[in-house]
Amino acid sequence: MPFDFLDNEIHEFHELREMKGKMIIVSAPSGSGKSTIVNWLMKEHPELNLYFSISCTSREPRGTEQNGVEYFFLTEEEFRNKIANDEFLEYEEVYAGRFYGTLKQQVERQLEAGQNVVFDVDVKGGVNIKKFYGDRALSLFIQPPSVEELRRRLEGRGTDTPEAIENRLAKAEYELTFAPQFDQVVVNDDLDTAEQEALHLLQDFLNLKS
Fold it and tell me: Is the pLDDT of residue 209 over 80?
């Protein structure tokens, strides 16, 4: 029947649309457990189909790093040209001549392949990406239970000088003011609980059954 054929075409069209990936933005002050939670989601829940966005950098490859795998390695001139052409979704000059950024075209390529793209970015980058993509992206803010607890964690790492810890805490207090601009806030008081909360939020966003 013609109408059955049309229904099938519509169904297949919607399926193709559903196959396209979505975006998950995760931001947090340093020491909040963001990377631990993201890595757990990616390792323990392959059904989420999560892939990191592949960023660009103007630094040289390190060790066994390969172009197009860990990063796209560009010269400083190439990076600046792409900035001038508005090719970046977000970028940062961490210090003079050393750039990191995410290409719009690369994100779209990964989304077209059906990947759910994860952005592990600072709070400003997270807010900017959310503004650019709107409802296609879920933005999560991983929040420590308190600044005092964050201090305890940073001191417990034993990797930073007291001065560096104070700088991180001052930055964290500033970054915490961005939390209301994110779709969801996950308080990492207990890691297992925070991981499960993040999992349920992603399952809802990706229309996956718990």
Answer: no
